[in-house]
Amino acid sequence: EAKRHGRGRAVRYAPGMIEAVAERHALERDLRLALADHQFHLVFQPIMTLSNDAIVGYEALIRWQHPTRGFVSPVSFIPMAEETGLIMPIGAWVLNEACRRATLWPAQQHVAVNVSAVQLRSPKLLAHITSALADSGLPPHRLEIELTETALVEDGPQVAHTLSALRQLGLKIAMDDFGTGYSSLAHLRDLPLDRIKIDRSFVSAALHDKHSMAVVKAITQMGSDMGIVTIAEGVEDADQLALLRSLGCDAVQGYLIGRPERQMNYCPPAAISTHVN
Ligand code: C2E
Ligand code: MG
Ligand code: MG
Ligand code: MG
């Protein structure tokens, strides 16, 4: 590499680059230890249906509480987990924990779990899902899998096989962050999808940008014509909620409805009633 720059010329690194590489390695090393050291936990964000404003389920979101760095965002460590293969054991833990927690909720509520492209490509994913369901006792119809467009459009034989097996099990499949990836309308037509999640970037811009508004309109219309439930992400204020209602969007999720929470002292209604005696 240095030779290409000619003899006697040192390769220059941009200031901070070596530090950034070292930092990355340190974080990667820590990520390897995090699972065994119980540094992960899940938070749950409510999803509200607009037909009767009921909470129909929660999305599980992973949190990493690093012993010295504090909170590390999944936006930075999930890609790292994907590159190192650590997403497989971490993803299996998420599935187990999410299913276990969902058994504490009312039976009409589901849990939505994010599954990465790397997991979907792996022949192990199905076993991880079936054992999470079996160990927790959660019925398959109460588990939803959120996949990104990028994961879904990869049409390898493994992906197709896993998707149809998941469908057969009775799970629901959602396309996450819709509109931001590389999906085409042919994929929407051909994939066995139950839900489309409209990306927050369109939802938050819709009221002041007519192109974002057009996209939100088109997705909700298409979803309803195709019999696919549409869920708007990142709903933060009442005006956005009113807009989504008027467009016939099926469900909403966002800080206005509820922030992702730990549910540490969550007490299921059933447990309360059986306790009184
Ligand atoms: P996502 O699946 O699209 O999750 C929604 C993200 O939007 C979450 O960020 C959530 O906290 C945030 N959010 C929800 N409502 C609002 C709102 O009203 N305003 C704003 N500004 N943000 C809102 P989070 O938890 O940081 O997760 C980021 C991404 O990391 C997720 O995007 C998902 O792609 C990934 N991720 C999180 N947990 C997991 C996991 O267990 N497994 C995998 N593979 N990926 C995960
Ligand atoms: Mg998601
Ligand atoms: Mg999303
Ligand atoms: Mg998103």
**What strand order characterises the main sheet?**
1-2-4-5-6-7-8-9
Helix content: 40-55%
Bound ligands: ligand C2E, magnesium ion
N-to-C series of helices and strands: HEEEHHEHHEHHEHEHHEHEH
Report low-confidence residues grouped into runs of 5 or more. Answer: none
Rough outline: globular
Major sheet: 8 strands, mixed, barrel
How many strands appear in the DSSP assignment?
Answer: 9
Quote the beta fraction: 15-25%
> What is the gyration radius calculated from CA atoms?
21 Å
Mean of the pLDDT scores? 92
How many helices does DSSP assign?
Answer: 12
* Structural class based on helices, strands and sheet pairing: alpha/beta
Euclidean distance between termini CA atoms: 76 Å
Write the topology of this structure:
Elements: H1 17-34, E1 40-49, E2 55-66, E3 70-72, H2 74-84, H3 87-102, E4 110-114, H4 117-121, H5 125-136, E5 143-148, H6 149-153, H7 157-169, E6 172-178, H8 185-190, E7 195-198, H9 200-205, H10 210-226, E8 229-232, H11 238-246, E9 251-252, H12 269-275
Parallel strand pairs: 2-4, 4-5, 5-6, 6-7, 7-8, 8-9
Antiparallel strand pairs: 1-2, 1-9, 2-3
Helix pairs in contact: 3-5
Describe this structure in words.
This is EAL domain-containing protein. It comes from Methylobacterium ajmalii. With 277 residues, this protein is α/β, with parallel strands linked by helices. It has 12 helices and 9 strands. Strands 1-2-4-5-6-7-8-9 form an 8-stranded mixed beta barrel. Strand 8, helix 11 and strand 9 form a beta-alpha-beta unit. Helix 3 packs parallel to helix 5. The model has no long low-confidence stretch (mean pLDDT 92). The chain binds ligand C2E and magnesium ion (3 copies).
